[in-house]
Design a protein that fits this description.
About 90% of the residues lie in helices and about 0% in strands. The chain has helices spanning about 1-5, 10-45. It starts with a helix and ends with a helix.
Length: about 50
């Protein structure tokens, strides 16, 4: 934590922005994955 505070503010904010971006992408892909599974299972059980 002390190392993070000793660096300049710009690089710290950039690191946080990159981490939040990757986290956002992860949640978007997770959401698309769950929607895909829901549609796939719905199609399987609807045929029976």
């Amino acid at each position: 934590m002390q190392n993070l505070l000793q660096r300049d503010l710009g690089s710290s904010l950039l690191s946080i922005a990159v981490l939040l971006g990757w986290l956002g992408l992860f949640f978007v892909f997770l959401r698309l994955f769950t929607i895909g599974i829901k549609r796939f299972l719905g199609a399987i059980f609807k045929k029976k």
